Amino acid sequence: MSKASTATKRLLLGRPFRSDTLGHTLLPKRIALPVFASDAMSSVAYAPQEIFLVLSVAGLSAYTYTPWIGLAVALVMVVVVASYRQNVHAYPSGGGDYEVATTNLGPTAGLTVGSALLVDYVLTVAVSIASAAENIGSAVPFVQTHKVLFCVVAIVLLTSINLRGLRESGTAFAIPTYAFIVGMVVMLAWGFLRVYVFGDDIHSETAGYEIKAEQDHLIGIAFVFLIARAFSSGCAALTGVEAISNGVPAFQKPKSRNAATTLLLLGSISIVLLMGIILLAKEIGVKYVSDPARDLLGAPEGYEQKSLIAQIAHAVFGGFTPGFYFVTVVTALILVLAANTAFNGFPVLGSVLAQDRYLPRQLHTRGDRLAFSNGILFLAAAAIAFIVAFGAEVTALIQLYIVGVFVSFTLSQIGMVKHWTRHLKTERDPNARARMIRSRIINTIGLLMTGSVLIIVLITKFLAGAWIAIVAMVAIFGLMKLIHRHYASVQAELDNSDYEAVLPSRTHSIVLVSTLHLPSRRALAFARATRPDKLEAVTVNVDDRDTRKLVAQWEDSDITVPLKVIASPYREVTRPVIDYVRRLRRESPRDVVTVFIPEYVVGHWWEQILHNQSALRLKGRLLFEPGVMVTSVPWQLSSSDRRKRDRTYIAPGDTRRGVGTLPGERIEPL
Amino acid sequence: MSKASTATKRLLLGRPFRSDTLGHTLLPKRIALPVFASDAMSSVAYAPQEIFLVLSVAGLSAYTYTPWIGLAVALVMVVVVASYRQNVHAYPSGGGDYEVATTNLGPTAGLTVGSALLVDYVLTVAVSIASAAENIGSAVPFVQTHKVLFCVVAIVLLTSINLRGLRESGTAFAIPTYAFIVGMVVMLAWGFLRVYVFGDDIHSETAGYEIKAEQDHLIGIAFVFLIARAFSSGCAALTGVEAISNGVPAFQKPKSRNAATTLLLLGSISIVLLMGIILLAKEIGVKYVSDPARDLLGAPEGYEQKSLIAQIAHAVFGGFTPGFYFVTVVTALILVLAANTAFNGFPVLGSVLAQDRYLPRQLHTRGDRLAFSNGILFLAAAAIAFIVAFGAEVTALIQLYIVGVFVSFTLSQIGMVKHWTRHLKTERDPNARARMIRSRIINTIGLLMTGSVLIIVLITKFLAGAWIAIVAMVAIFGLMKLIHRHYASVQAELDNSDYEAVLPSRTHSIVLVSTLHLPSRRALAFARATRPDKLEAVTVNVDDRDTRKLVAQWEDSDITVPLKVIASPYREVTRPVIDYVRRLRRESPRDVVTVFIPEYVVGHWWEQILHNQSALRLKGRLLFEPGVMVTSVPWQLSSSDRRKRDRTYIAPGDTRRGVGTLPGERIEPL
To answer: Where, by residue number, does the polypeptide cross the bilayer (chains A, B) (predicted)?
Structure first.
């Protein structure tokens, strides 16, 4: 082949780099908001409740601090949103915190963020589903008493939906998310209207009970600690805010600007809902304690405590039960949606980590069904383990939750500060410099804020459970380091190996046959078609009778390829073939030996057990011999047809990553 | 290639059909006896005890029948030994009952025998180990109270020894077997001497206790039923007698004569031991009941009942404890040896069944380590399941045991009767006819005897547990039928397929590359060495950056093979390659397409997870396309060396099958 033919190298099928330009269905802001916001927004379903719960330890009087804690959380939210608006502009590629940390702080920081996020995805599923169970449980007593069962069933359902390949659509996200926003806004507005405008005297069902404070009259450090813990728990409202920074490529142009606007919208809605819920709950006397039988004085025997949102809905809508049910259902729905985003995000993050060789390489191929399945199954198993271990208690799970989020926030902000500093060194345009300096200030504030929250979270939650999340992160970090090291050592081995690209002088082909059936004949015909320098058929004599029959058939047939019988004193197949191939290699070391193996192709896994096992094992062993190629010549049995009819698979998370089929485009089934 | 070259077809490596003529170490009778007799002889360790146990239900008076039951069992033994001496002469190939039934009664009868024997091997392990535990437990109280644990540990030990490939030797069999015979004979002789010659008044430790009969004064049918049950249980002494008929090829010449003599020897020793044990036990007042706390009046609180043999040894040797310990230890040893024979026999039977396509074909290759491992693991798991389910109680397990043996005995004898009848039709020599008629008479008596015992066993034991064994046999029978049917349908499909042996007109080779590293270069070089009509390299664009880099490298390199980039809109590897190959096939249907896949060869299973996964999946899918060959071009990473150092493997059961290495012959490690 001449150098000229390299011109054909560029011959591409279809348009070049089709995956970049084709199949994008870009999201307008009104769809992007629900697609990326369900995780963040759903956290207002449990964050305020956790604030009330923590403070109940010090008795009812501590509830006076709830608005202030809410404000502190809202402040953190403002800062984080402002910071991530800078991220979105600086890194529009959708790499998110992992990319920011890796680029600016090096691979170790990136890997730390990666581990934190992987653990966090697991906890997102656990916390969201547990909280959904709690909200549904407020309306359906059966769920209340069988929370763990409900959660496990829900996770199994989500898993099977995602394993089958859920085709995401903007609508699927939009309806529950907007329904949740509408439900919440209506509930809050109606509630405040009734209280402040109509002057109705509405009370939650727990308003009449007294909290039995575990620790009455907390003072000094202990009280500060309690407030800090309540604040930490409230910061759960921030989880999921970073999702938009992973989704910039899916936005319509101007991508970064639209993403930043959507982020602002998300932050505003979250703050409104958070503050509204806290203020209204306090107004109507909601109480939320960890053990109502012990801590709620005046409650009737066997009282089942409703979730905070359910208590508000119950009080606000009074006799109008559809309102109460609507709010509980949409709250549960958005929580399930939030859990589902983890099912999409986890394998996507896995593919990014695999690209950087921190996870098995095959996870990199995003469209690959099996790679995704493994990720989904791992996520589901881990989430179920957490659910069972913590009895589906939101309060217990939330102790583990936000460490990872804030590790990721903080490292990302450090990275952004470095990013701007680096760019300022080269940038000369005063306007651009001014913008960069402004951005750096915002990210510095973000860093100080998220760093402080991280420290507070670590102090107040370490012993309560955060250590478990940290241990998990460290373990995943270590495992990914080991995988990376393995790939690096393979790379080094390849770099150091000598390989002269001289062509092997001749090819010597052998066809393995056991009986003279059609698969063997096809293998012989294919082997002859490759016109090797030497071609022979080889059979291993594991059974005298069979071998004699084969030799007789061979002599009677029209086959001109010579048949060689290899003795097998121990009636095995592998060793004699290996020995024979080694002998060929010794005799002419510059030849390449090709071993043709006829194989049945079957449609069922159990047929696989009944066929090819010796061939597979032999193939595996032959590959250990240098200078040997192994060629499978398939014979398709009729049962193999069913495998061709496998349905088309859509990878989860496509919509969020801006990947999709164009209208009318059809994927041809394999 | 000309017709003349078919002369080289016969070129064999080494001597022709080496596995037949080489590597046999034939056994003299003195070694053959212990090798094949441990199973049969060990059953006298539990058979007499079961007779005593069953009769104890009717109280002490029923013990007067023990000698008569013993005689009945001995009579069956005489008949069975005489019958099998005919088998051994008629079928010297070692196929045993399976071969006799298949040849004379057709495949269904053969398969019935096969299923019965498979179940029986499992029960041999369970019963032998449970009985060993009982005997050891008579000397070591800890084993008595932890029988299940002891049995499970023992089976796991046996399994691991056999998985590692136990090199059998005649000595390993001879020492425990002869020690058992000597121990028993000395014990019995000394016991009878003391009683009848010295006139010592020796008593077993249970002699002073009274049996509380469950059913006093049994009369009529009920009593006959009890006697029949005792007889059925006693027939457990016959298990393992058929083993010699599987081992004829391992005997020194004249094989059949020597095997028949050994059979006679085995039968004689078994009868002597059986009758000796029963008579002496009765003489010294041994009692054996199912629940000593309930059924033994006068026994102290917490009395642990010793096995029957231990009771005899204890009484006979009196103060001489080494004698007592010697007898218990050799009894346990021969029982473990008997269990071990099942570990050898099970995979061997599996390989025979696989040869006839009743089990996955790869089990046929006897020397194959993996095939044997699977058989051994299955046997061990099933035996452990039985041990645990029945609490390692010999009495419970023995209810399941002998159905299979007698199914196999009976079918084998029917087969032998037909065998002689068939031969008598053609035989004209009066002497030969006389011998055949004599043999047929013996086998007919054998048939009547074993058939009657089978009916008695079925009647007396069906509800007590034999039904479980029967259900297991039916299930295995059905499974093997299904496997056979599958193979037959594949055969039919191949027979009905049209295949013109015309050579494909041209070969079109494609080499899959992802990066331009050494494995890819080797694959390209090897592919070029096969001189295809058309050769091109193909890469799937799952990542733009990577693909651009590859294209740039390719253009800078000295490679003259053109590189084709395939678009992958969904970032997957498999589908675009399949589509491309299909397009090639459509364009020139008579070409054969060869896909070269560079593969890493690694040494650890976890490395396998980190490499080749996409390649393996692609390979699996490509095989479904007709007219496509898949060639693996291996690149051996340094870690792959460790796999080459795997130690040599000796298949279990070689000694019994007459297969072994000649002195000084060495197996080269793979």
So the answer is: 65-84, 105-133, 145-163, 175-197, 217-241, 262-281, 324-349, 370-392, 398-420, 441-459, 465-483
Cα separation, A340 vs A347, in Å, equals 12
Q: Mark whether B482 and B513 lie in a shared domain.
A: no
Q: Is residue B11 part of a domain?
A: no
| Final residue of a structural domain among A488, A520, A544 | A488
* Contact list, A352 vs chain B (CB under 8 Å): none
pLDDT in tens, A91-136: 888 778 888 999 999 999 999 999 999 999 999 999 999 999 988 8
Asked if B662 reaches chain A (Cβ–Cβ under 8 Å), the answer is no
User: Look-up: residue for tokens 């309560």?
Assistant: A464
- Rounded to whole angstroms, the Cα distance separating B484 from A669 reads 33
Beta bridge partner(s), residue A634: A599
Q: How confident is the model at residue A474 (pLDDT cuts 50, 70, 90)?
A: very high
Which of A10, A25, A362, A628 is most worth mutating to test chain B (most B CB atoms within 10 A of its CB)?
Answer: A362
Contact residues, B window 11-40, toward A, CB-based 8 Å cutoff: 11-20, 22-23
Q: Which of A402, A394, A397, A398 is nearest to A386 (CA)?
A: A397
Q: Looking at the structure, tell me whether residues A142 and A285 fall in a common domain.
A: yes
**Residue B585 forms part of a structural domain:** yes
The answer to whether A584 and A507 have CB atoms below 8 angstroms apart is no
Both A515 and A472 in one domain: the answer is: no
Q: Which candidate from A518, A522, A610 shows the least CB-CB separation from B361? A: A610
Among B429, B456, B488, give the residue marking a domain's end: B488
Report whether pLDDT(A189) > 90: yes
Nearest residue of chain B to residue A497 (CA atoms)? B518
Domain shared by A332 and A425, yes or no: yes
Q: Are B355 and A543 an interchain contact pair (Cβ–Cβ within 8 Å)?
A: yes
CATH number at residue B550: 3.40.50
Query: Do B400 and B536 share a structural domain?
Result: no
* Domain ranges, residue A433: 29-488
Interface touch A571/B610, C-beta < 8 Å: no
Nearest C-alpha of chain B: how many angstroms from A644? Answer: 8
Q: Say yes or no: B309 and B279 in one domain.
A: yes
pLDDT tens sequence across A215-240: 766 677 888 888 998 999 899 898 88
Q: Is residue B650 part of a domain?
A: no
Do B365 and A2 make contact, defined as CB atoms within 8 angstroms?
no
Q: Are residues B190 and B79 in the same domain?
A: yes
Q: Which of the 8 DSSP states describes residue A462? A: I
> Tens digit of pLDDT for each residue in A446-455?
999 899 999 9
**Of A594, A618, A505, A581, nearest in space to B631 by CA:** A594
Helix (H) or strand (E) holding B337: helix B321-355
Which chain A positions have a beta carbon within 8 Å of B490's beta carbon?
600, 611, 637
Answer whether A319's CB lies under 8 Å from A237's CB: no
- Asked whether residue A271 is assigned to any structural domain, the reply reads yes
How far is A451 from A176, CA to CA, in rounded Å?
33
Claim: this prediction has a pTM higher than 0.80: no
**CB within 8 Å: A16 and B624:** no
Cβ of residue B534 closer than 8 Å to a chain A Cβ: no
The tally of domains found in chain A comes to 2
Task: State the smallest CA–CA distance between residue B176 and chain A in angstroms.
Answer: 28
**What are the strands, taking DSSP E only, across B192-237?**
210-211
CATH number at residue A70: 1.20.1740.10
Residue B500: phi, psi to the nearest 5?
Answer: -85, 135
Q: Quote the tokens at residue A361.
A: 């390489």
Q: Do B570 and A366 touch (CB under 8 A)?
A: yes
Decide if B592 contacts B629 (C-beta within 8 A): yes
Chain B interface test: which of A540, A571, A591, A650 (most B C-beta within 10 Å): A571
Domain identity same for B591 and B538: yes
Instruction: Choose the mutation target among A500, A528, A530 for the interface with B, i.e. most B CBs under 10 Å.
Output: A530
